[in-house]
Design goal:
123 residues; 48% strand; 7-stranded mixed β-sheet; mainly beta
Length: 123
Amino acid sequence: QVQLVESGGGLVQAGGSLRLSCAASGRTFSSYVMGWFRQAPGKEREFVAANGVRTYYADSVKGRFTISRDNAKNTVYLQMNSLKPEDTAVYYCAADLAITRATVAEVDEYDYWGQGTQVTVSS
């Protein structure tokens, strides 16, 4: 079992930056593929970024967001720069052992989820 707790969300003006953190429980954190997803009101949850052996990004955030992890602290981060109003959403951290390159962006493939943290970008 893995428990995930996100933090770092908030209200920021367009063009600003935020860094989200996701702290994970468990002793095998380094074995998990860690992902960030987001869900805007009235929309489906969508892939943002993931970090395992490789790093993956959604096209909409490529060049603006950076995912990183600190295995010693059991924490994954999402640095978000040049934020846009369309980035407004609840951001979720997810984890799974069996993610592959083909499934990294699939919501249903991740077994463990955090409770989410709200990010609001004002124009």
